[in-house]
Amino acid sequence: MKISYKWLNQLISLPESPEEVGKLLTATGLEVESIEKKESIPGGLEGVVIGEVLTCEKHPEADKLSLTTVDAGQAAPLNIVCGAPNVRAGQKVVVALVGATLYPTSGEPFTIKKAKIRGAASEGMICAEDEIGLGTSHAGIMILNTDLPNGTPAVQYFGLEADYQIEIGLTPNRADAASHLGVARDLKAVLQRPVQWPSVDAFKIDNRNVPISVVVETPEGAPRYTGLTIDGLTVTESPDWLKQQLRAIGLNPINNVVDITNYVCHELGQPLHAFDADQITGSQVIVKTVPEGTTFVTLDGVERKLSANDLMICNASEPMCIAGVFGGQQSGVTAQTKRIFLESAYFDPAWIRRTSQYHGLKTDASFRFERGTDPNIPVFALKRAALLIQEIAGGTISSNIIDLYPNPVSDRSVAMRYRNIDRLIGISIDRAEIARILESLDIRVSDVTDEGFTAIVPPYRVDVEREADVIEEILRIYGLDNVPLSAYLASDFLSESPETDPDQLQERASQLLAANGFYETLTNSLTRPGYHEALRAALPNADVQLLNPLSEELSVMRQTLLFSGLETLVYNLNRRQKDLKIFEFGKIYSRNGERFFEQPRLGIWMTGRLQSESWLNSNARSNQGALNYHDLAGVVQRILTAFRVKNTDSQPADPAIFQYGLTLLFNKKPLVSLGLVKASLTKLVDLKNTPVFYADFDWQYLVRLYNGKVAFEEVSRFPEVRRDLSLVLDTTVTYAQISRLAHQTERKLLRDLNVFDVYEGENLEKGKKSYSVSFILQDTSQTLNDNVIDKTMNRLMSAFERELGAIIRK
User: Fold this and answer.
1) Which pTM does this prediction carry?
2) Is residue 686 pLDDT above 60, yes or no?
3) Domain range for residue 361?
4) CB 285 within 8 A of CB 341
5) Burial 283-293, CB ≥16 within 10 A → b, else e
6) Does residue 364 fall inside a structural domain?
């Protein structure tokens, strides 16, 4: 996030240098990554001053030249030869001193030197506006009307002092600081100086000639929606001061109306949007969702297909804007616009985040809305923008302020205890200082007792929800450097086992797969964007696109290993290699806004037959020898066993990728997905009528789960006992549910269980299946007798009947 030092000074007095301000902000948690000087024009008019022509005579050897003496604030007047026809004694002029480098509007820069012109000495230059880059006129020198003393830097007269761009690495939790006002608030708390909010006292409604009605059909997406109309404005280029402010933070000016909405967004942190009021069909604005697949052309000219979950700003007949994200081409402000509807709203962050991610659109508005804006500022921002538009573009405010806010967002109350503040900070801070810090951050302190108080947190501080959050606010303003370190502070760590080496684990997994007949592959991380479009619903983030791709087929970084392996299979199948088992350790890449992600994965692919043709294996010559899901599942289980991962849960695999399959989870987090790849995806790589089984491991998670400890126990001297049950269950019940329930019911004696037969057919009612399950029981301290075995099996049967609705064939 970029902040202008000059702009910041309009909100809070800062005699400190930009570098000092940067240190203060970093100390409060707004880490300053860089400070860059920004000049309004090239060269910043360095060495150019205000001067006064004392004398002016014609050059004796050149009719078009004049000999002048100029007071430029130096020790003595300067002799300057001037060729301008309008130079006269007594004029205030712009003088470039010897050594100044000028950057003209056209042509190359040049440096002023002492010279002799037709025999006369010249010690500077009296400048025209094009010679110093302020305009295009070269009709004569610039004549100034000013009382500024001679020698005053010209940048001061023209208001072109250099600015400083402060770049802050804004963390996602600090949505409140995503503006100049937000940064000024932190400086207010640290420096104990007031923040000067811009005045909106001059706001008034001129008439009601352009009424626009607003209906919010989706209040959960737009808890607050405000707006007004402005009539009779003129859309043109912005004034210099506005363009300079926007350029100072890296924005390109567009036109005066759009520039003002951007200005207020970066000033107050409240995004706004201006609609051409003449394009609002039916004079009605409707906030709602539209049917899935509705096409919509955004301001960048791209036609997009909308999701049914996208919040849209519509008129009576069609969408006009993707709420909080991007405007539409038809309703945007143009040079022909004469009246506008100005929107200022509070949108639910989850709605905007979902839409922004779905369309891969990241804008200044979505950046703020998806993190959480201030629900109490839309009307103030609306008035601020309206007044600026009137000042710059003219027009009259021609409607009442519409403010739909049915359920106001209330402040949060957080119970605070002094003992916890002291404990977490490490020292006891004066109670009055704690109150001062919080009040300076707009966090009110109430119900104060000897034990604690209640902190009343305004809703714009979306990150302050718990006691620990409030304590963090106290600490960052009090100053981490002000907390002394104890002389006895120390830490130690006793490692129970050597650190896990991911490379060694990768080698172990490679050897296991190679021992089971797999070949390792290594493929390109670049791939075709068309692959991702076929899987867009299953991909959580946007593509990482190359700025200079060699071809369309290699223009994005892969988000999945799937297609890399499928292309390898096609290459081999085209060369009559039909029975294939391959694996790859590779990385996948994605992007969310300005954040990029790289994640290691393990992919396994199988197609063809489990065993090649052989006179010893007659099944290999028929379809009976074809690979199936369980062959892949067995390989996956061997890898999990090698990494000592047990007790996984399961859920159906993503139907966008798999025709059928499972996702195995550990601690509710996906670990591996496996199954039969959908035929529609294999066709994308010209792999037709060829079943492919695929497993996708989260390799980083699997490495983290690896437990290097090996536990041993003595082989029991007492025999195992097997008992079988036939369970008739609903088809929705999985083996994982049976196994989990069995182990929960009998923790001591149950050693293992296994399904040895599954039946679905004519003899069972629709929606039912029969599982034949074997149970292995064993007691390590004694031989099991029939009485104990029967009681154990009865408990298991009761649990199956009660929890799973099983019918047990006894």
Assistant:
1) 0.58
2) yes
3) 213-404
4) yes
5) eebbbbbbeee
6) yes
- The per-residue pLDDT of the chain, averaged, comes to 91
- Per DSSP, 645 falls in state -
pLDDT computed for residue 606 by the predictor? 96
Are the C-beta atoms of residues 606 and 630 closer than 8 Å to each other? no
- Do residues 315 and 348 both lie within one domain? yes
339-346 vs 396-397, strand pairing mode: unpaired
Residue pair 727/791 in contact (Cβ under 8 Å)? The answer is no
For the beta carbon of residue 769, count every other beta carbon within 10 angstroms. Answer: 16
**3-class SS at 277?**
helix
> Residue 581 forms beta bridges with which residues?
606
- Please check whether residues 10 and 56 belong to one and the same domain: no
Q: Which amino acid does the sequence have at 58?
A: K
DSSP code string of 493-510? ---SSPPP-HHHHHHHHH
Residue 215, helix vs strand vs coil:
strand
Tell me the per-residue pLDDT of 569-593, one tens digit each, with 9 for 90 and over.
999 999 888 889 999 999 999 998 8
Kindly report the three-state secondary structure assignment for every residue of 60-75.
CCEEEEEEEEEECCCC
Same domain, 676 and 624: yes
* Tokens representing residue 298 in the block: 């955004």
**C-alpha to C-alpha distance for 168 and 182, rounded to whole angstroms:** 12
Residue 175 included in any domain: yes
- 786 and 798 co-located in one domain: yes
**What's the CATH number where 590 sits?**
3.30.930.10
- Please state whether beta strands 124-126 and 213-216 pair in parallel, antiparallel, or not at all (unpaired): unpaired
Q: Domain containing 424 — which CATH number?
A: 3.30.56.10
Say how many domains are in the chain. 6
